[in-house]
Amino acid sequence: MLTVRAPATSANLGSGFDVFGLALSAPADVVRVEKAPETTIEVTGAGSQYIPTDPAKNTAGVVAQELDAPARIHIDKGVRPASGLGSSAASAAGAAVALNALYDRGHSDEELVRAAAEGEAVVSGAAHADNVAPAIVGGFTIARADGITSVDASLPLVVCLPDIVVSTRDAREVVPETVAMDDVVETVGSAATLAVGMSRDDPSLVGRGLQESVVTPARAELVRGYDEAKQAALDAGATGVTISGAGPGVLAVCRRPDDRRRVAAAMVSGFDEAGVDARAYQTAVGDGAELFR
Ligand SMILES: Nc1ncnc2c1ncn2[C@@H]1O[C@H](COP(=O)(O)OP(=O)(O)OP(=O)(O)O)[C@@H](O)[C@H]1O
Ligand SMILES: N[C@@H](CCO)C(=O)O
Known about the structure:
Pathway: Amino-acid biosynthesis; L-threonine biosynthesis; L-threonine from L-aspartate: step 4/5. It is a single chain. By secondary structure, the protein is of the alpha+beta class. Helix content is 37%, strand content 25%. It folds into two domains: 157 residues, Ribosomal Protein S5, domain 2; 128 residues, GHMP kinase, C-terminal domain (Alpha-Beta Plaits, 2-Layer Sandwich), CATH 3.30.70.890. It contains ten helices and eleven strands. The longest helix has 20 residues. The radius of gyration is 18 Å and the shape is globular.
């Protein structure tokens, strides 16, 4: 039996829709695999009652199919589904890394990212790799059709999870189909600023680089309390705030680790002002999936 800890991730980072992703140091899914004649799935932990155990519908089961690696798979969910923290991706990434080792396949990280992205396609309708790439590789990742680029960044972060459910599928439906040239110019400027900020571990540049006016405002309509939580986090010293992945989670970048407590409390009060219960995690950029033999 093999065990893999696969981290939560925050995709998009505002200006990098479907491209940027960040591994978080916590929470994480724990995936255990054992060789079997056919794939079966058992799920425990956060929100497990909402997760299909049919291998064709579970992201980890799809990965087993993609890698032609049947197994008895147990997933202990640390990452709540439909949170915006790459819950479905954590299981897919964990399964990819675990099954690769179990069957001694020797696939590269890029091949595992591709297999895990197929798992994501069953959930959201698109094989986007922006969550599975950081969940496998760790750090900050740029996922493009021609490959993955990654940087080991170090940044204090807060993720606030309001008690609202937003499915990735629904959140993708509100994304505008066309973009004005002014918005393209703003997004390119932000994305470049953010990427430089990640390579310098500079929270001010990363915070500024989250700014984007196309996808985030459309999705903010689905997250009651987003504007209040964002303003509260900025007032408490965050350098930037955006929706994490498809939401409803909200990500704040902090200047110093000690700022996280104040920013976390401010975000929870911001949601409370809008009548929404929320819980905040103090976290940081983390490593990719870790294998335990
Ligand atoms: N192993 C799995 N873990 C979690 N969710 C799964 C899994 N397999 C299938 N799903 C389904 O995926 C959906 C949750 O995925 P979704 O992409 O909406 O949320 P997320 O992964 O938390 O967020 P995001 O991708 O925005 O960061 C739920 O409908 C759930 O039933
Ligand atoms: N890039 C994806 C991440 C969520 O799975 C989205 O925002 O729809």
